[in-house]
Amino acid sequence: MQFHGVPDADAKSKLSPSFKGKRGWRLMGLNITTDGAVKGFFGGNAYLAILVLLFICIFLLRSGLGFVPGYRVELGEARSSGIELTNKVRYELTGYTAILARANQAFIAEKRHRFGEQESTIYLYEEFEALIDDNFEDAIEEYTDLDEGIQKTATGEKLRKDIAKACHKIPEEELLLAISRRLPDLTQISPEAKQQAVTLAQEYAINDAETPDAIDEVNTRINEEMGQFHAVIKKLKAAGKQLRDLEAILTKHTGETDRILKLNRQTSESIYALENGLKKANKRGDSPDTITAIEQRLHKTKNSFIEIDTEKRIQSVYAKIESHDAILDKLVSESTAAFDLLPDNIQNEKSATTIAQARILTDEFKIIITQQKQNISSWRHDEKVNLLSTLSAYFFGSQWQTGSPWQNTYGLLPLLTGSLLVAGVSLLIAVPLSIGSAVYVNQFAHPREAGLIKPAIEFIQAIPSVVLGLFGVLVLAGLLKDWSHSPLLSWIPGFPITERLNVLLAALLLAFMAAPTIFTLAEDALNNVPKAFTEASLAMGATKLQTAIKVVLPAALSGIIAAIMLGFGRVVGETMVVLMVAGNKAEIPNFSEGLGVIGQPVHTMTSIIAQEYGEVSEGSLHWQALFMVGLVLFTISLIINSTCQRVLNKKSK
Amino acid sequence: MKSIQTSLAIFTGILLSSAAHAESKIDIKGSDTLGAKLVPQLKNAYVKANPSVKIDILAQGSSHAFSNLDAGTADIGMSSRKVKQEELDKFEAKGKALVEHIAAWDMIAIIVNDKNPVRKLSLKQIEGIFTGSISNWSEVGGPDAPISVYTRNTSSGTYKSFSKLAMSKKDYGTSCQKLEGNQPIVTEVAKNVNGIGYVGFAYAKGENYKTVKVEGVSAKVSKIAKYPLARKLYYYTVGEPTGAAASFLTWATSSDAANAIVAEIGFIPTPVATEAMGSETK
Fold it and tell me: What pLDDT score was predicted for residue A413?
């Protein structure tokens, strides 16, 4: 791609001489001379481009803007059916579940630390069970097919022996490796545990592949020995029961209301369509058969409305939610009481930190629920959803959940932050590289060297993005993850990376794609700095380096900024690479990790369109929502481009 | 003159061929699981062998199978579930009989990395993992490590069937990474020690990853009767099928060529499944 940042003042006069002397306006085709025809062809092309652009704008606006009223209706239904309220209760439940999960993790860590040797029986047994599944399926079938008798006993004996033999054949180190992944404190396998596991495995085979109850018993026994800690977990679990029940009841009740409301809306939509069709058919004078058929369908559709008393249904929701505050209070007091029961002598370090985290979460939960209580008591089903709240639900919504059996939510924020994060990080990588090389090529490189570097960098653009994506998924993702575990690189934020597909990987590949754009444009801008500047600087005794940094670079700054912005536009709009390597996790990145955020997977605006477009039916709300995303992308690009133009214009003045 | 002749020949050709098409046209409507890939490929193979048959496929979801059969706008309905009682009532009220044909079996395998020691999961644990309430492997008997969940994206039929079969129709957690197909899921799980994902049966075996047992049952064809994430896929017709529909159905459900296509796409052909069921009940 060639781009001239500043239109060369001489360029016009250099135009083909045959155009010279033929002044004045000519519309396409009106002039019969060859020159006129050529001009007309060029002009036509230029106007066509503008027409296409206009067409795209109108198409995007038309398809996307219908989303806002549509979403407003859907949000209104979610409110009047009570789904919105259920979501609030679900939010509380999520908070509680997180606390419980942390406590449970702490419990498991402590349990494994203290009773690892006993627990190893279970894991040894699982290894043996897998061994039996792989190798003894036929033998077990043969055994179970036999009738009771001497032969069966004998076969059973042989089976037991074979299994014991096979179990003991597994090298000790291999077993230990499999088990120590879960029990890091375990240094050797005790013969007793192994013997017990073998016996249990034999039992498994004889009982036609039924896991023996003894396995559960081992676990129960360890839990009991954990004493107080186990009681804490049990109490925590019990504390949430009422909230879970409330959520289940609300889900069932409000979900049903919502379902009926949606069905009725579909019915009225099809009635509208059918009535329109009937009118058109009458106008066209279609055959009476066709018209009767439409009338019949209309009649049938009208009958399929489902009677629903929303008012009565919502009143029962209000009745159910009355106990909400009491349930929450009880949950908090019971879980606080449970935490107080915790033994002081937690031995495992990991367990201690995790349980401390659970406690902090509980404190945060307490603050959240005071707000929640107020939220829920002031909630009204008949409050109208206004335009502003619809827009903010879209632009500031933190969840993008589609294809949901419960409620589709279209929140742009996870996608927008994902897109911007990926683009930002990739610019951080691409800008120094490409500007640096542009300065080098333009100011320092030998012409022959420049002749090698420039085409090479520009050639990068020729690589199809799918190829880059594949390279990312199959090669770079693994390398990056391995490198991130090397102690030499541990200073980089976000390292070591746990997810293979992440922001950094996407950003690296995108930087590679944006670099040629930025390089070419920046190099052009540097080229356009008048020679006199450089010569004057050198004449004053400045070195080449000083001239480059203090004279040429500032003079080309606006062109360079424009180059960077166009690079940004290129990166934000890129689809294939991010779709393949960014991980597609539609969640707002966790910025509390600071710069470590670059190790997380994200979803972006471009990839959501690519990913979900195949599923949606034309004209549906989901379809419109995707167009809205497209519209936002388009607006971003438009802003970037027009700012670029302005920056450049300013400079040329 | 010559051009008139040619165009005349083309015209009669079109007339003839459309007449032939009109003679045996089969409308197949319903499930997306079947209609997205399997039935179109079956159609291609069938039409190649029987060029006089025209088959139209419309895949909008299983419930459309029954409404279209009822309205007479479909000859064959595709469904990824059994007919509901209320749907059946409608047919019975009109004195029509709905006939069920098993199209194929479907099994969704849960896969984890080879290095992951977890070998079995209960349905409740699977639900917890995919809804996001379980986020550490230690909670399901694995090592102390975060879980990376890989799922299909929302346009996949399996995305929805999995939510139905394994997640009691709950929403996927927001921490799921949505990938483009079975192969990307396999790639990620094979390369991420902490990964978990689900794939169609055809992808259940491979290097560096393994399937886990669900409720103590492994994802093997021989265990299809007991495996919780297995289901039957159906064709439905009003009354015993006749004419072109009948011959297509017989071919699609029993011929070797059709079974090969079924297996290739990742479903389990009925004969294979019934044989496994037979040995199970012995």
Answer: 95
Given a contact cutoff of 8 angstroms between Cβ atoms, the answer to whether A84 and A78 are in contact is: yes
Per domain, the residue ranges of chain B are 2-105+232-281, 109-218
B98-113 and B120-121 strand pairing: unpaired
**Angle formed by the axes of helices A228-239 and A83-135, nearest 10°:** 130
- Residue B76, φ and ψ in degrees, nearest 5: -130, 135
Residue A183: the pLDDT is 87
List of residues 6+ apart from A620 with CB closer than 8 A: none
Task: For A569-586, write each residue's pLDDT tens digit.
Answer: 989 999 999 999 999 999
Binary contact (B154, A615; C-beta < 8 A): yes
Nearest CA in chain A to B179: A584
Question: What six digits make up the tokens of A95?
Answer: 């908070």
CB–CB contact A405 B139 (8 Å): no
**CA–CA separation, B26 and B57 (whole Å):** 9
Is the separation of the CB atoms in A638 and A569 below 8 Å?
A: no
Summarised one tens digit per residue, pLDDT across range A137-176 is 888 888 888 888 888 888 888 888 888 888 888 888 888 8
Collect all residues with Cβ–Cβ distance below 8 Å to B234 and sequence separation of at least 6: B78, B79, B80, B81, B82, B100, B101, B102, B103
Torsion, Cα of A500, A506, A509, A514 (10° steps):
-170
Lowest-confidence segment of A312-326, A530-544, B28-42 by average pLDDT? B28-42
How close B49 comes to chain A (CA, Å)? 30
What is the dotted CATH code of the domain comprising B109-218?
3.40.190.10
Pairing of strands B195-200, B98-113: antiparallel
Domain of A301 in residue numbering reads as: 76-86+240-387
Q: How confident is the model at residue B6 (pLDDT cuts 50, 70, 90)?
A: low
Measured distance CA(B59)–CA(B76) in Å, rounded: 12
What is the rounded CA–CA span in Å between residue B176 and residue A501? 12
Q: What pLDDT score was predicted for residue A618?
A: 74
> What are the structure tokens assigned to A150, written together?
């001497």
- Binary contact (B138, A109; C-beta < 8 A): yes
Which residues on B lie below 8 Å from A97 (Cβ)?
133
pTM (predicted TM-score): 0.82
Mean pLDDT of A264-287: 84
Question: Residues of A with CB below 8 A from B160's CB?
Answer: 403, 405
Which of A155, A138, A159, A133 has its CA nearest to residue A146?
A155
Q: Quote the pLDDT of residue A393.
A: 92
Say yes or no to pLDDT of A7 above 50.
Answer: no
Domains B2-105+232-281 and B109-218 share a fold: yes
CATH number of this structure's domain B2-105+232-281, picked from the four choices 3.40.1670.10, 3.40.190.10, 3.40.50.150, 3.40.50.2000: 3.40.190.10
When pLDDT is averaged across residues A607-622 and rounded to a whole number, the result is: 82
Q: Which residues of A touch B147 (CB under 8 A)?
A: none
